Amino acid sequence: MEESSRDQNIKSIIRMEDRVGQCCRCLPLIMCTSKPSLGKGDLEPQAFLIFECENYYTRDTNWLIELRNMIKQELNVERVYHTFMVRCHPKACSNRQSYSCIIPGKLLNRDNICKLSNDICDGIPMKPSGEAIINCLTYLLEEMDILSPTYVILFGKKVRDYVLKSCGVFEILETGQAYKYKDMVFLSTVEEKLFNKEELQKLHRIM
Ligand code: SF4
User: Fold this and answer.
1) Which of 1, 21, 100, 145 has its CA 20 to 30 A from that of 93?
2) Ligand 1 atom closest to 33 (CA)
3) Residue 201 Cα, ligand 1 centroid: separation in angstroms?
4) DSSP assignments along 95-120, one per residue
């Protein structure tokens, strides 16, 4: 029996996620990441949302559900998927800084307990470096290629600039503009913390 495209997508995404789970390209990040952030949502998406990295907003399930519902309603799509440009979590950590020598390897277990403090991680989330973005972009491009969405919503300037350039688009695109690329349309918007109904309506107008 022939496999449906959804089944093929599931298999390809699982293979990619296995590689993400074993990835060691950014040693300082994997030390303080209990598990890398993975994409979630419909595996034949019409709208594919890209955030820079996991943060206060994307960890809030209620915020994510509300955002998805707003997008479905305002952009008239049914299938939504979200993912991240960088999967591991950059943090400022006083525990780590107070040790002059640490054996490389994961410091956090899957329950987010730190080996140094023997307590839940209290590192302060930071924005990812350019190096981490470049290291991680290949996974995002692969994910986009597998799922081939209709609309790709780029949250924030950094996401917009890196994703467009990595697709070979060097035109300067401003927030609130659209760009047709292959069978997709990139829609540029503000960072998630500034995103609201008004920004959504702007997206609707440029679709
Ligand atoms: S941030 Fe991305 S590239 Fe870096 S170690 Fe994690 S999965 Fe690998």
Assistant:
1) 21
2) 6
3) 34
4) HHHT-S---SS--B-TT-BBTTTSSB
Q: Torsions phi, psi of 137, nearest 5?
A: -55, -30
Count structural domains, the chain: 1
Residue 50 near residue 151, CB atoms below 8 Å: no
**Cβ burial, residue 147 (10 Å; 0-12/13-18/19+):** buried
In one-letter notation, the amino acid at residue 170 is F
pLDDT band at 199 (very low <50, low <70, confident <90, very high): very high
Most confident range, picked from 111-115, 158-162, 168-172: 158-162
Domain interval for residue 176: 5-206
Q: How confident is the model at residue 79 (pLDDT cuts 50, 70, 90)?
A: very high
Residue 22 has pLDDT above 70, yes or no: yes
Mean pLDDT of 77-104: 86
Listed in sequence order, the residues at least 6 apart from 184 whose beta carbon sits closer than 8 Å to its beta carbon are 144, 148, 149, 150, 151, 152
Amino acid of residue 128: P
Q: Ligand 1 pocket: which of 25, 33, 138, 162 to mutate (most atoms <8 Å of CB)?
A: 25
What confidence category does residue 116 fall into, taking pLDDT thresholds of 50, 70 and 90? confident
**Quick one: pLDDT at residue 100?**
67
- The beta-strand segments (E) located in 85-206 are 91-92, 124-125, 151-155, 178-181, 184-189
CB 186 within 8 Å of CB 141 = no
